[in-house]
Amino acid sequence: MPRRRKRARFEQLTEFERGRIIGLREAGLSYRALASRVQRNSSTVMRVWKQWTDECRTTRKSGSGPRNVTSARDDRHLVRMARTDRTASSRQLAALWSIATGVSLCASSIRRRLLQCGLRARTPLYRIPLTHDHRRLRLQWANQHRDWRADWQHVVFSDESRFNLWYHDGRIRVRRYAGERHLPECIIERHSGRTPGVMVWGAIAYHRRSQLLRIVGNLNSNRYIREVLQPEAVPFLQSLPGAVFQQDNARPHTARIVKSFFAAQQVQLLPWPACSPDMSPIEHVWDVIGRRLARDPRPVASADELWINENVHRANRSSYMAFILEVVGFRVLFPVHIDTFSKGLYSS
């Protein structure tokens, strides 16, 4: 027998539900059978049918129900308070409201008023903290490269990324009934200590990709040259005529010994604004690999197994590099704080 859906108290009937009750009653169903069909109380079904037979009315009387404690002006004031502090919880807003007006209002009423006004609590967008100079440099960099078209086909984008043994990016949701919060199937476990994982380095170009390198331990400038640049990055660049190498401004990338190595190997570097790892298209590749690893039905017991699965998923996405640079890459290269369409920065 299917489980009966739990309803909130004082949930009103919709117009469709009222019409359905009347239609089923006219079809000959008893009150008890009808109440079980629409998952409502028998008294509610009888009241709807009586309103229809006595008054020929299917709508709720205007003005019925308890009066709102707040007026329309109070609701506008509440919206201004919520927009002033976007991260304030409903309990905090209720306390501020009580101090400002002297009227007590519960947190559920605060949430209901804000929902009626179109303010819904959502997951915030996380980003790197940017200063005024960071924004200025990002805009300056975008203006300098706004006319690039075919030039992006010669750029090699590189980056490091870490993939954990237990992957959770905040997108997972659990569908449950009220009161099922502590059921084992509705709980996602997370470890309090550092999660074991694999640090990797990779690079992508138009229709090309480098080998995926595993980095064990902390990466410094000497290891960056010895384990990444010499065996993989430089040969990969030399196989692409006129290649331009892109890397972020992490300390191992900008050390003097690394700059001297690039000069000796005659590697052309793409200037990159500070605090802008989110502008590189390779971040989308890491995201795709992470999602595919999270959807893998086979449980991963060690970092070595995770490394094997990671290489398999990356090999299956060889055609994804050109898609990133062709469809998404041009737009994500530019700062998210710039209207790319109005400034003519988006390449169609």
How would you describe this protein?
This protein is an alpha+beta fold. It is built from 13 helices and five strands. Strands 1, 2, 3, 4 and 5 form a five-stranded mixed β-sheet that branches. The C terminus is likely disordered. It comes from Stegodyphus mimosarum. Its main location: nucleus. It holds the Pfam family HTH_Tnp_Tc3_2.
Write the layout of secondary structure elements.
Elements: H1 15-26, H2 31-38, H3 42-55, H4 72-84, H5 90-101, H6 107-116, H7 132-144, E1 155-164, E2 197-205, E3 208-209, E4 213-215, H8 221-238, E5 244-246, H9 251-254, H10 256-265, H11 282-294, H12 303-315, H13 320-332
Parallel strand pairs: 1-5
Antiparallel strand pairs: 1-2, 2-3, 2-4
Helix pairs in contact: 1-2, 1-3, 2-3, 5-6, 8-10, 11-12
Write down the Rg. 30 Å
- Number of discrete helical segments: 13
- Let me know the largest β-sheet: 5 strands, mixed
**Corresponding CATH superfamily of the largest domain:** Ribonuclease H-like superfamily/Ribonuclease H
Question: Residue share in helices?
Answer: 40-55%
Mean pLDDT: 78
Which second-level CATH architecture of the largest domain applies? 2-Layer Sandwich
DSSP strand count: 5
Low-confidence stretches: 326-348
Class by alpha and beta content = alpha+beta
Topology pattern, helix = H, strand = E: HHHHHHHEEEEHEHHHHH
Give the N-terminus to C-terminus distance in angstroms. Answer: 55 Å
Q: Judging from the principal axes of the Cα atoms, what is the shape?
A: elongated
Tally of discrete structural domains: 3
* Relative strand content: 5-15%
CATH topology of the largest domain: Nucleotidyltransferase, domain 5
Name of the top-level CATH class of the largest domain = Alpha Beta
What does the oligomeric state look like here? single chain
